[in-house]
Amino acid sequence: MRQTDRLPGTCRKLSVVVLMLPLIFASIHAQDAAEYQCTGKIVDTLQRPAVGYRVVYRVVGGTGVSISQPTDDDGEYSVMLPDEAPCEPIAVISPGGKRIELGEQDPVAKGEDVRRDLKLEIMLPRDESDLWRWAYGSDRLQLSFVEDTATTDNQRWEVQLELADLGDDRDVRVSRAIAAFAIDQLPGVELGARLGYGAVDNPDGLADESGITDLDLWGKLRVATAENNRREYAVGAIVTLPTGDQDPGFGYDGLRSKIFMAGRWFVGSVGLTANLGVRFNEDGETESGVPLSGEIAPAVGIGMTLPVWRNVALLFEGTYEGERFESFDPDARVLVGMNWKPFDAGTFRLGFAAGVDDGAPDGQILVGYAFDF
């Protein structure tokens, strides 16, 4: 009797479940139809992709949140957002679970190809697999500072001290200020300026001299990248204004200009660089009035950046530039240096160069500190 009594009740419950199944499936289907997909990419201040990070979206004016799947190797993510109201990204969660709050962001709403790229105002931790781009924009060369593919992401300020031995008991000290700026509306474009003040210690019997140097102005464009930024190219131009004092040899009363193209290729963590250019030198004269006949000078440079630790890279460079004026010697140099990035916004730079032609200093020491913002 007891088993018989239970059968009708069990049947009634099963009937209710069967009748509710269409409603359940309809509700699920309605829920799916009320969502849309938003995609995007997360990068840090150095434009490196954030791998394994998740984005938190919140309904504007509400409390409901949606969390994306972890980003892939390119920093790409996707997330399903409810169609009930616009949503805004409010935070990013690191692979270790750290929550990184985002600043004010524009909301997104349903539409075709909804996308929201995000830039974190931090520099992501580096690991051994990411050494080759540990300091993008701060792994700049020293002899070919301009004639390279590296461009600043925002702005870069650098102070530099150069000590050079010109031979014949003549030594030079030059302090330089360098500034470079990016243009938000033109990705990959850099504009910059470089000016210095120097002093020449002459041999006994000759007065020491000092004065400002010529002013360098440049613009360049990083024109192409490939294979996840493991190859890149740039073109640019430099104009040197005759602002320098002629007596100590910091100016020659003539306009100079240069056009160049450059490439950088990464083999593992090693960066290989090369640049090729032509410099046009106008006629000028010395302080004593001796005329100088300007020449068109070919220029070439090669280099290598070798990361040896998480924030230290060694530099090896060689440069050659033909004679600037008639009867002048070509300028050929080799350099060994280092870039050390002890802080996210700063890079200490040290280089030792030697001249391999009479037109270059016998020896040269470069010391600088760069600030990236």
By CATH, the superfamily of the largest domain comes out as monomeric porin ompg
CATH topology of the largest domain: Porin
Number of helices: 1
| Oligomer designation | single chain
The low-pLDDT segments are: 1-7, 25-32, 127-137
Work out the radius of gyration. Answer: 31 Å
Widest beta sheet: strand line-up: 8-9-10-12-13-14-15-18-19-20-21-22
Indicate the proportion of strand residues: over 45%
What is the string of helix and strand elements? HEEEEEEEEEEEEEEEEEEEEEE
Largest sheet, if any? 12 strands, antiparallel, barrel
Distance between the termini: 84 Å
Secondary structure category? mainly beta
CA-based shape: elongated
The chain-level mean pLDDT equals: 84
Q: How many domains, as an integer?
A: 2
The name of the CATH architecture of the largest domain is: Beta Barrel
Account of the 3D structure:
By secondary structure, this protein is mainly β. It has two domains: 34-119, Sandwich (Protocatechuate 3,4-Dioxygenase, subunit A), CATH 2.60.130.10; 128-372, monomeric porin ompg (Porin, Beta Barrel), CATH 2.40.160. It has one helix and 22 strands. It has one helix at residues 2-33, and strands spanning 35-43, 54-59, 65-67, 76-82, 87-93, 99-101, 118-119, 155-167, 170-183, 186-201, 209-212, 215-226, 231-241, 256-267, 270-281, 284-285, 291-292, 296-309, 312-321, 331-343, 346-355, 363-372. The protein has a twelve-stranded antiparallel β-barrel with strand order 8-9-10-12-13-14-15-18-19-20-21-22. The chain has a four-stranded antiparallel beta sheet with strand order 3-2-5-6, with no helix packed on it. A three-stranded mixed beta sheet has the order 4-1-7. A hairpin with a 2-residue loop joins strand 20 and strand 21. The radius of gyration is 31 Å and the shape is elongated.
